[in-house]
Fold each of these.
Amino acid sequence: MVRLFFKIFRVAVVVAALVALFVQYKYKDEYLAYKQHAVPYLMYHSIGVVPGWDKDVCIPEQLFAQHLQYFSEHGYQVITAAEARRKLLAGEDVAKNVVLTFDDGYNNNYTVAYPLLQKYGYHATFFVIGNSVGGPDYMTYEQLQEMHAHGMEIGSHTMSHDPLNIIATGYLPWEIYQPINLLRQHLGFYIEGIAYPNGAYNQAVLAEIHKYPFIKYALTGKAGCNTAKIVRETPLELRRMGIYDNGNGITGLERRLEKAYLVGFLESKGVPTDWLYKLTVPKI
C-alpha cells in the first residue's frame, strides 16, 4: 500500500510538471500576459511554531522572514486584499502584486508577523474570529487598532469559525454579522472582507452576505488567482492559495505561487482545475 501511494504520488508530480511545461511553453505569451493582470492571494495562519498546534497552520518565524525577503528580492509589491480589489477594478498595473492574508487572529500575527511586515513596508490582511479576539493566544482589539492605523487591513473569519455551509440558515446572521458589528464597535469602522472558515460556503451564505453592502469581497478555499473579471463578477468567491511548511523552504513558496498562477490561467481558459488543486506544481 505504501509503495502504491508513492507510485501514485510520483505520477501526480510528473503530470503536474508536464502541465506546467505545456502551459509555460505552448502558451508562453498568453501565460505571461495573464500573470501581468492576476493577483495571487496567499493564506497564512500562525507565524511561529506553537507546541500542540497542527503543523499545517504554523510557519516558523525564520521561514516567514525568508518569504518576505523573497518578495523583496524578486520585486513583488505586498498589498492588502482591499487594495488589490481596488487596483483590479480600476485597471491598474498589478504585475508582481501579491496579497498576504492571515487567518484566525493568533497573537503571533501581532508579535512576529506584523513587525516583519513593517520592516519591509508591506501591508497585509488579518481575518479574526469574533469569539477569539482577546482570548489566550489571540490578538486583542487594541492590537488590531494599532495594526490598522499602520496600514494593515482587518477582516472577519466569522464568529465561531464553524464551516458556514453546515450551519442552519437561521444562525448565519450571528455568524456573519455579529463579528462585523463587534469590529465596528471596537475599531470604529465597517470591515470590507470576510474569509470563509475552511473555505466553505453555499448559496445561503452568499445570500446572507449580500444583505450587507459594506462587505465588498469574501475569500474561498479555491486555488488560483484573482483578476478584474473575478472581482467584478463573483466578489464573494475570490481565490486563495494556502501556504504551509512542507519542509521545502523557499522552494515551497515558489511552487505555491506558480500553482496559483497556473490554476488561475487554466481556469481563465475554461479548463476544469479541481484535479490540479491537490497536485504539486514544480517551479520550472
Amino acid sequence: MPLPDTSTLALYMIAALVLLLTPGPAVLYIVARSIDQGRLAGVVSALGIGVGSLFHITAAAVGISAVLAASALAFSAVKYLGAAYLVFLGIRRLFFETTDTGAQAAPQPRRLSQVFVHGVVVNVLNPKTALFFFAFLPQFIDPARGPAAVQIFLLGAIFVAMAICSDSTYALFSGTIGNWLRNSQTFLRGQKYVTGSLYVALGIGAAVTGPTHR
C-alpha cells in the first residue's frame, strides 16, 4: 500500500490542515486578488497556485526518490535536514521578518485566464515552495510501504486538494468582507507569529515522531 498507515496519514492531514489554515504569502495574494476582482478571481487564483504546487511536488518526488535509491543514510539525512529547515523557517518568521504591507497591494485587474496563469507562474517560480515540499513531505514517507515517488505524489495530491479548498474559502470570505483583511494590521501581525510557531512545532514534531527509514 503506497499510502502511509492510518495514524501517519491522519497526522499528515492534520499538519497540512493547520498549515493551510494559517495565512501565508499565497493566502495573502489570493485575498488581495479576491478583494480587487471578486470572489471568482480569488478562487481561480487558488486553482492556479494549486497547479503550480504540482510542479514542485513532482520535483520533490524525483529528487527524494533519487536520494532514497542512493542510500538509507542519505534519506535519513534529508528527512532530518528537512525537519531542521522547517524549524529554521519558523524561527526566521518569528524573529527576523517584518510585516510587509506592500505585499498585500491589490494586483492589477486581469482576465480570469490570466489570473489562473499568473497564479501558476507565481508558485512555480517561488523557490520557497520547492524547499517547503522537499522538507515537509519526507517526514511522512515510509520506504517499506512502496516507492517513495508514488507516496509523494499521493500525499502531494492530498495536500493540493486540501489547499485549493482552504484557499478558495479564503477567497470567498475575503471577497465578501472587502478591504478589511488586506488593511488590518492585526491580521498581518498575527499571521506572522502563528505561522512561525507552527513551523517550529512541525519541524520538532516531525524529527521526533515522524516515520523513519526501515
